[in-house]
Amino acid sequence: MSKIPAIVPVILSGGAGTRLWPVSREAHPKPFMRLQSGESLLQATFLRAAGLANVSQTLVVTNREYYFKTKDDLDEVAGKADAVDVSFLLEPVGRNTAPAIALAARHVRELAGDDAVLLVMPSDHVIADAAAFQRAVSAAVAAAGEGRLVTFGVVPTAPETGYGYIEAGDVLGNGPTREVARFIEKPDYPKAERFIEQGGFFWNSGIFCFRVRDILDAFTAHASEIDQSVAITWKASRATASNDLRTMHADADTFQKAANISIDYAVMERADNVAVVPGDFGWSDVGSWRSFADMIAADDLGNKVVGDAVLVDANRNYVHTDGRLVAVVGVDDLIVVDTPDALLIGHREKTQKVKDVVEQLRLRDHESAKLHRTVHRPWGTYTVLEEGKDFKMKRIVVKPGATLSLQMHHHRSEHWVIVQGKAEVVNGDNVLRLEKDQSTYIPAKNKHRIANPGETDLVFIEVQTGDYLGEDDIVRFDDRYGRT
After folding, report:
1. Do residues 213 and 112 make contact, with C-beta atoms less than 8 angstroms apart?
2. Strands 57-63 and 85-91: what pairing?
3. Residues 57-81: b if buried by 16+ CB within 10 A, e if exposed
4. What is d(CA 359, CA 337) in angstroms, rounded to the nearest whole number?
5. Cα–Cα distance between 200 and 106 in angstroms, integer?
6. Residue 450 CB contacts under 8 Å (≥ 6 apart), including other chains
7. pLDDT reported for residue 482
8. C-alpha pair distances (Å), 156 with each of 137, 166, 199, 349
């Protein structure tokens, strides 16, 4: 009996998800969005991967800016996947899926060898039918064991123009795996209709399966420049003394020189050993608010609500609210998404254009393109309570055992008031221990730091005053999280 290969899910986690603004933002992207189950998209993907047969380790590829939030997210559900080890490969910049997968393959080769099977999964997809997905994975692993580069094709439910398509060729063996005849760019509507009528065409899911040795050989044959640049990055990354395989930082100087290209263009469309496993496993890439709304049950009038809302004389609307009550009166076919600092209202047929809103916000250098009012940091969170000319108020939560960096500000002074827990504070030359109702004033240019030595959250109010209150007015002298 042949040895069953190790399967190593590689979860690609990144991307701003601009079509899902204002919930998804640059500093808190789509993988961290929560489903109705309470799980984030990232958590659901990880648990799906961990539940597959013959999986004992998982590799998460993400931007180093998201590492601590990603780790916190996965720690929340670690108890549901005790037998699965998690390693992290941290990119300094996003270079699309081809360089990420080429680097991940080298990482997995050291973890599990050349015969290990990579199952590459985006972190921000929804798969409703876990059993059907498991069957598709089993078929893909079998084909990968024969040297195939496998992609997963989704049985189309409508003539969708927002997805690329795969035309399937001959059946391989006893099925369901088939050869790939061709990859097709996003079609217009009449062409998509013909694909549905003709049959044998599938949505390109962006999920892949192949052995380490086969995908690396494919990079060498079809994308040699990426192969060579990523090989240099891997060598430089492994040479860094602080790196280990559980948390690997990709070398910034070399990785940013890699071509920005997808695995489809770099390899899959050029190789001649590509196969597709068709599947009907309730897949969605959740690429817009309309597709997010499709996962919610509707009432008798076609309205779908997440949060607290009242609808009067309204039909076929989707309302998503975070905290505040939203009332909708006398309108139809709208998407309404309310967050503490931004409100989106749009027609349900125009949700793809939300990305244009984000582009305009970026051109205006508007903070809401990047940050929420509550911002996650390695040590905890801060929430902007109020701000105006020359002042800003924050509620800051520091996790047990965590500490902010030793830092200084050129343009602002700060006043800290403890409202919960205990704090150890460095303020200039003074070291203070503060408790509830106690405070300290920190003048501009004073070095300062606050730490939580307790076993419960430390909560304090920070009042900033000064002529510039931007988050980039921070000079760090020491930081346990490696930030500069």
Report:
1. no
2. parallel
3. bbbbbbbbbbbbbbbebbeebeeeb
4. 18
5. 34
6. 398, 403, 404, 416, 423, 424, 425, 426, 458, 460
7. 84
8. 18, 11, 9, 19
> Residues 10, 101: contact at Cβ < 8 Å?
yes
Burial of residue 170, with CB atoms counted within 10 A of its CB: 0-12 exposed, 13-18 middle, 19 or more buried: exposed
Tokens of 445: 């240019």
Contact 346, 334 (CB under 8 A): yes
Distance CA 137, CA 402 (A): 40
Q: Which residues pair with 319 in a beta bridge?
A: 305, 336
* Structure tokens given for 455: 């076993």
Reported as a single tens digit per residue, the pLDDT across 141-156 is 999 999 999 999 999 9
Task: Read off the tokens for 36.
Answer: 């109705």
Q: How confident is the model at residue 4 (pLDDT cuts 50, 70, 90)?
A: low
SS (H, E, C) the chain: CCCCCCEEEEEEECCCCHHHCCCCECCECHHHCECCCCCEHHHHHHHHHHCCCCCCEEEEEEEHHHHHHHHHHHHHCHHHHCCCEEEEEEECCCCCHHHHHHHHHHHHHHHHCCCCEEEEEECCCEECCHHHHHHHHHHHHHHHCCCCEEEEEECCCCCCCCCCEEEEEEECCCCCCEEEEEEECCCCHHHHHHHHHHCCEEEEEEEEEEEHHHHHHHHHHHCHHHHHHHHHHHHHHHCCCCCECCEEECCHHHHCCCCCCCHHHHHHCCCCCEEEEEECCCEECCCCHHHHHCCCCCCCCCCEEECCEEEECCECCEEEECCCCEEEECCECEEEEEECCEEEEEEHHHHHHHHHHHHHHHHCCCHHHCCCCEEEECCEEEEEEEEECCEEEEEEEECCCCECCEEECCCEEEEEEEEECCEEEEECCEEEEECCCCEEEECCCCCEEEECCCCCCEEEEEEEEECCCCCCCCEEEECCCCCC
Contact 333, 339 (CB under 8 A): no
The string of pLDDT tens digits covering residues 125-140 is 999 999 999 999 999 9
At 17 the pLDDT is: 80
C-alpha to C-alpha distance for 400 and 84, rounded to whole angstroms? 26
Determine contact, residues 412/473, Cβ cutoff 8 Å. Answer: yes
- Dihedral sign, CA of 152, 109, 92, 476? positive
Beta pairing, strands 85-91 & 247-249: parallel
The answer to pTM > 0.70 is: yes
CA angle 206, 211, 215 (to 5 degrees): 65
Tokens 């006398």 correspond to what residue?
330
Instruction: Say how many Å lie between the first and final Cα of the chain, rounded.
Output: 53
